[in-house]
Write a structure and sequence with these properties.
259 residues, Endonuclease, Chain A, 10 helices, elongated
Length: 259
């Protein structure tokens, strides 16, 4: 499909209401001529967009049903984009340049809003009693999985088991995972790659991605930057990816025994 036609479809989807787009889809799918397409659009202002779309179609030599299918696909993408909200999440010095949410507040809100499935991933966990309490409360509401770096599997990168910092209630009621050393790429010098991601995803609809570990300094003193994504398809895709790593035994429960 030619670039001018793709652009014309995009402009039409962005500017026309749903009723006009429904009519355009039907007309391109069923209409035998350009005039039938134009007659399907009710007002002159909307008809100009339709006219530009017809011109682009004729120049590209693409048939009507293909254009109708492309309009439907573009509308689906636009719905996802409109439904998605992205917020900046920050720890550190503030400026008036942009409104930001604090890292700890964004994480605690995401945890509190989880109702079915919560997955939290962090390299380090240290001195975060509010997060530990929030995770314990979440365990009473939904399934909780926590993916952490492990002293045993890190090859000396961390010197204590991170799971201990979350308390006994979380350890008993959440499922804790780590990246097994036998699944990690060798980075030389007898060392393996690190479990360095920091994110949290709730119910496939809210995703926090941040540079911040689950530590006191990350929430109060460091400069940390992240994004909170609400809606759209990205949270669900990240959750599916993490679930696949768990199902594929790449991320294994703690404690576990190697086979």
């Amino acid at each position: 499909m030619s670039e001018p036609l793709v652009e014309a479809i995009g402009r039409a989807v962005e500017s026309l209401p749903d009723g006009a787009l429904d009519a355009l889809e039907r007309a391109f799918r069923d209409g035998p001529s350009a005039s039938a397409v134009l007659e399907a659009v009710p007002t002159d202002a909307y008809r100009e967009r339709a006219r530009a779309l017809v011109r682009a179609q004729e120049e590209a030599g693409v048939d009507g049903p293909a254009v109708a299918l492309a309009i439907a696909a573009a509308r689906d993408r636009e719905r996802v984009a409109r439904a998605q909200r992205v917020s900046v999440v920050w720890t550190g010095p503030e400026t008036p340049a942009i409104a930001m949410r604090r890292t700890d507040q964004a994480l605690l809100e995401l945890i509190a809003m989880a109702r079915h499935r919560l997955i939290v991933v962090s390299f380090a966990v240290y001195k975060v009693p509010e997060v530990a309490a929030a995770l314990a409360a979440a365990c009473r509401e939904c399934e909780v999985a926590i993916v952490l770096e492990s002293e045993a599997e890190s090859g000396g990168r961390v010197t204590y088991e991170m799971s201990q910092a979350l308390g006994s209630e979380v350890a008993q009621h959440a499922t804790l995972y780590t990246w097994s050393s036998d699944q990690r790429p060798d980075v030389g010098g007898g060392k393996r790659a690190s479990l360095h991601a920091k994110c949290a995803v709730a119910d496939g609809v809210r995703l926090l991605v941040s540079s911040a570990n689950l530590t006191e300094y990350a929430f109060t003193k460091n400069i940390e930057l992240g994004l909170l994504v609400e809606g759209g398809d990205v949270p669900a895709r990240v959750q599916s990816h993490l679930e696949a790593l768990i199902a594929g035994n790449v991320l294994r429960p703690l404690p576990y025994r190697r086979q």
